[in-house]
């Protein structure tokens, strides 16, 4: 079984979806969550992990003088827990090139849009303003270039006529809770990997 570390900053609803999937033997995820790490001391997601006895760690980026130092501290915690795969689940920090290179092919993120459209923050608002009639989420490998890594899986949602940003955020969140466990399973069971050319290899 692969050992998974999950990085969070907030409420941890995607973490919960990953916990539910990995604790269900019927899901055959091929992995277990062994560490939940937050950069925010009060992240609600920490309680979700504690409830099911998953070890947690808080590392505040404010305690480090540079992004690289903070990322090194995260890296050390992941190594200490013998983590094989890292999931960013609402983790709100841009990771240094050094960190993304060390975890290349083992580090995934969920973004609330159908990449390569609407990279960056407020992706749902960007979709509404663009007038597209579908959006969704993408689970992708993390590389230094933010939201540009190879896409593992996507889930679409409709955009309805009277949607507000908040309604669309919620609809896409529900899609994320399906797509993220699916992507983690694909990686943990080695159905997908990242090639040297930074493209997905399916087997
Ligand atoms: N880092 C790299 N590549 C990626 N992090 C995430 C995805 C991803 C990544 O594909 N290299 C917004 C964060 C964006 C932002 O500007 N954050 C600030 C701090 C804001 C805060 O602490 O509240 C910063 O300086 O990092 C995960 C998603 C990142 C979301």
CA-to-CA gap between the ends? 19 Å
N-to-C order of helices and strands: EHEHEHEHEHEEHEE
The spatial strand order of the largest sheet comes to 3-2-1-4-5-6-7
Q: What count of helical segments does DSSP give?
A: 6
Word description of this protein:
- The protein is an alpha/beta fold.
- It has a 7-stranded mixed sheet, sandwiched between helices. The chain has a two-stranded antiparallel ribbon with strand order 8-9.
- The model has no long low-confidence stretch (mean pLDDT 98).
- Helix content is 34%, strand content 24%.
- The relative contact order is 0.17.
- The structure holds ligand 3YE.
- Ligand 3YE is lined by residues 88, 91-95, 100, 109, 121, 142, 144, 146-147, 149.
Brief rundown of the structure:
The chain is an alpha/beta fold. Helices cover 34% and strands 24% of the residues. α4 links the parallel β4 (85-88) and β5 (107-111).
SSE blueprint and pairings:
Layout: E1 2-8, H1 13-23, E2 31-38, H2 45-51, E3 56-58, H3 67-80, E4 85-88, H4 97-102, E5 107-111, H5 123-130, E6 134-141, E7 151-158, H6 165-188, E8 192-194, E9 200-202
Parallel strand pairs: 1-2, 1-4, 2-3, 4-5
Antiparallel strand pairs: 5-6, 6-7, 8-9
Ligand 3YE is lined by residues 88, 91-95, 100, 109, 121, 142, 144, 146-147, 149.
